[in-house]
Amino acid sequence: MDFSELRAIIKDESSKGAYVPSSDLIQKIVSELKKHEIIPIITEIGSIPEDIGHDSSEEKLYAKVSDIVLAKCFQELGLRATVNKERANCADVLVKSQFHGYSLIADAKSFRLSRTAKNQKDFKVKSMADWQGENDYSVLVCPYYQYPKSRSQIYGQALDDNVTLFSWEYLSILLENNICESQHLNISNLWNVSNIISGNTKNADKNNCFLNEQDKIIRLYLKLELTEFENSFDKFKLNIIARGETEIKYWENKIQEIKLYSREQAISELLSSLKLNEKISSIKKYIDFLKRGR
């Protein structure tokens, strides 16, 4: 199975309107994938396809599938991982080391390539710290190139609360290099990177992007040559570029489709996209409630 096939399953299942059974079905499918099958999917899952509607049932299912893929990654790393059934006020994935006793929470993030404006709330770093509870680590998994490039509060928050800013790309590299925890290999240092960086960071610099330093720590941990590590990221960039060109084509086709609309169809589509009737309905419900009194 590749990403396009998984994407087709998500689309088909979301049309059935049965969220829990669809999630369970896809979880079973993903759990049966071999490592060589899941690796190509890992870096694709971080980019939400542009043809998935905002706040749609398909987008909701896609988010759940990203949790499922993340749990599968941890399982391939030799850890026990389960997808949290609750979506509110808790982490997506719960992970436990079966050999060394530590535990962590993990949160999967995916973004649209068309969405460039992101703020600290999109990453929920502070929430990760709050959700950690008695677990030893908290790990945020986000597309590498979607992290802020210079200064951001998320870096300071990660250092203050020891939240690891991991990426789908890092997970791909780990699996490609056959990293798997065992009785003789404890990989907990991978989830403690922010704590390591914090010890070498001045307070005035804590909001600076530390991904380059983190890259070095992870590369040295894996004992990879710099060229080998950089070649992996060059490959990731090429994949993102190819994916971006596909998403651009989707919007270009959509533009041509809209140009063929009749005046009435265009007005109808505009009203629908602006959700004006829904806004009017919400206000009516509110003032009707006030009219009825306390």
Strand and helix layout:
Layout: H1 3-14, H2 19-31, H3 35-45, H4 57-76, E1 80-83, E2 93-96, E3 103-108, H5 120-123, H6 125-131, E4 137-142, H7 153-161, E5 163-167, H8 168-176, H9 193-198, H10 211-222, H11 226-259, H12 263-274, H13 276-291
Distance N to C terminus? 57 Å
Strand order of the largest sheet: 1-2-3-4-5
Strand fraction: 5-15%
Class per helix and strand makeup:
alpha/beta
Largest sheet: 5 strands, mixed
Computed over alpha carbons, the radius of gyration is 21 Å
Tally of DSSP helical segments? 13
Outline type: globular
Order of helices and strands: HHHHEEEHHEHEHHHHHH
Kindly state the mean pLDDT as a whole number?
A: 92
Q: Unreliable stretches, pLDDT < 50, 5 or more residues?
A: none
Query: Percentage of helical residues?
Result: 55-70%
Say how many strands there are: 5
Q: Care to describe what's here?
A:
Helices cover 56% and strands 9% of the residues. The chain is an alpha/beta fold and 294 residues long. Strands 1-2-3-4-5 form a 5-stranded mixed β-sheet, sandwiched between helices. Helix 2 packs parallel to helix 4 (57-76), helix 3 (35-45) packs across helix 4 and helix 3 packs antiparallel against helix 8 (168-176). The longest helix has 34 residues, at 226-259. The protein starts with a helix and ends with a helix. The model has no long low-confidence stretch (mean pLDDT 92).
Characteristic terms for this protein:
5-stranded mixed β-sheet; 13 helices; 294 residues; alpha/beta; globular
Outline of this structure?
With 294 residues, this protein is α/β, with parallel strands linked by helices. Helix content is 56%, strand content 9%.
